[in-house]
Please model this.
Amino acid sequence: MLSFSDNARLVIRNTTKELNMIEVAYSAYLAFYLYLVLLLVQWLVATISKAKQPHAIPGKIDDNLSHESFIFRAHRTFHNTLENSALFIGTVLFAFIINLQSPIFAICVWVYVVARAVHMALYYAIATEKNPSPRSYFFLIGVVANLVMLALIGLRLVAL
Model:
């Protein structure tokens, strides 16, 4: 039989573990929120930069534009993020639904968000047709983070 002090230590240890899991979940929630803000910022930059152009037609980008044009790069940055959002958002929401509270998962969410932010900054700053470009490496970091998150979800489902 456990003594009162042993029971108190066990309760404190379990409470601490629960608080740590809440912090891990909150961290992933915060990173996910910041990703959505990043998406909004990219939309605003693409929309405003294009709208400032003379004779701008909503929803239409001049076919003659390429990487030398900031309007093209802002448009491509936003659309590239949209193209990658389905897998990331699906992965994160699925993990939230199955209550996956893993520090590794939370770190991967942060890595993905930071990689996408750096990818955005490099796309805005560097006009290049070169492939791979510096932004390509951050794209790949995001892909790897997403693959790790999917693997963690798979492991969790197998363990259930």
